[in-house]
Amino acid sequence: MYIHQVAAYVPTQVITNEHFTRLNGLSHDWIIERTGIRERRKAAPGENTNTMATEVTRRVLAAVPAIAADSIDLIVGATYTPHDTIYTLAHAVQRELGVADIPVVSISSACSSLLNAVEIVEGYFAMNKATRALVIVSEHNTAYNNEEDTVAGHLWGDGAAALLISKERLADSDLRIVDLRTGGAAHVGKADTAVTLKPVEKGIVMPHGRDVFTHACQYMARVTSEVLERNKLEVNDVTYLIPHQANLRITKNVVQALGLPPERAISNIQDLGNTGCAGAAIALADYHPRLQPGERIIITVFGGGYSYGAMLLER
Length: 315
Description:
The chain has 315 residues and is an alpha+beta fold. The protein has nine helices and 13 strands.
């Protein structure tokens, strides 16, 4: 499997830390120290998970004019902040493309959904049910967020990304998906209560942030090491690590546990906040054009609930 193109979309409205200082007294320095976040993006009125998904779909296809929309034969969408639980973001993308009679799937495994979506593509390709797929990850966190929550209200940002994945290499710049491993960890810690989003109650809450932090660090480092070991690679063979963009302290902890030079970790949380399952894909979109032949990237993720995964890519 090959990632042929990646595109990202983030809303234009910037919400700085000062907004939360005025709202609930959290200082800019305190937020930086605890999370690494300086600002985040907020969807405009009229924007939502589906509109961001369709916009990023336009962008990824515009980047490859030689590929016709009607050649897409699988769409997999991922989000935990749906605009509509029935007319999902994957349906919205299909309608945008105008392609009939193809598999259209939407999933949610919290912030790890990106890799689960790619794994679904892997299954369709293996069964010869598809050859060219779109994976769309889109999060409208601010639609659900309670900004007055001093525990987690300042964490969230909005954004989307799209991956065009093919069964065969289409260009020298394609990223080969060398390995992919995911797993669920709902049996450990406070997975059932650590992060929840119950729309009929009060939106996204995170009463057990320490539990999330601990398990995220452990699982992201562990699954990354497992993928490297399975492919007979050392940490020094990794050019870049793209972790789930949840907290800069988590990134630093994972990097330290792996023994990876800190400058090899890619982070966008400073500017975008936690954009859920879209965060790592947005980072990949930023770095994809500058990757050189032979370079390797590992994306590692962790989601509330709990779930985790790692994917090894090679240019």
